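To whoever is on call:

I kicked off a structure prediction for a single chain this morning and the downstream step that reads the tokens threw a length-mismatch warning. I double-checked the sequence; it's 239 residues and nothing unusual in it as far as I can see. Pasting both halves so you can look.
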Amino acid sequence: MPILAIDTSTMVSGAAIATEDRLIAEVTMQLKLPQSQVLLGHIEDVLKIAHMDKKDLDGIAISIGPGSFTGLRIGLASAKMLSYALDIPVVTVSSLEAMAYHYPVPNIYIASVLDAQKNNAYFSLYEYNGKNFDEKKSICVMAFDEVIDFCSKLDKPVIFVGDIAQKKADMIAEAPNVSLGMPHLCMPRAANVAMAAMPKFLNGEFANIMNLEPVYIRRSEAEVLWEKRHSQDKTGENA
């Protein structure tokens, strides 16, 4: 059951092909290039590396968010396009849950964090149960210093993964009970999305692509600014 997995939740662009028991091929690029410029090329590349055609795919897995607003939209649009064209199902995976798959290790917590701007983080906490990951804290937006404070008081060691964790490495190094994941095991990967999505494929937990939207958690800065300006315009009209 080969599936194509896509991750565009951050500046990392990734595509992978996997089955129930193995990763067949993966392409990952961590460069400051728009996802719109590189994603479709990565999909073509990973199919070529795997010696496969799009018609050989049985499904698509996509990281649904949270993360980059633009990146998530591009990834989801690509997944929908392929789903329509190939008549195959789509399964969604939390971007934060997928990152936890870097560390399938018992007796520790994985703090998955992505940059939510203004020193805030999209944050969720996971623990490996021997088969997959239990969510110990639901996805939320928190100030990053509050995330560190929360994790430093937990009853098990915590490994941080994610882009803002790398940016705040000094803060993590100074706190008790927490550590930063290795660089190659810190950022999102499409292979992780594939592994997290596979149980859903096997259980038939497919998304309805007709109304499928990214999970943003919060509004974009553009939406906030538009609302603020629109409100000011109305205030001026009523003055």
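Update from on-call: the warning came from a stale cache, not from the record. Cleared it. Sanity check on the structure: The helical segments are 35-49, 69-86, 95-100, 144-152, 163-167, 169-174, 190-202, 221-238.
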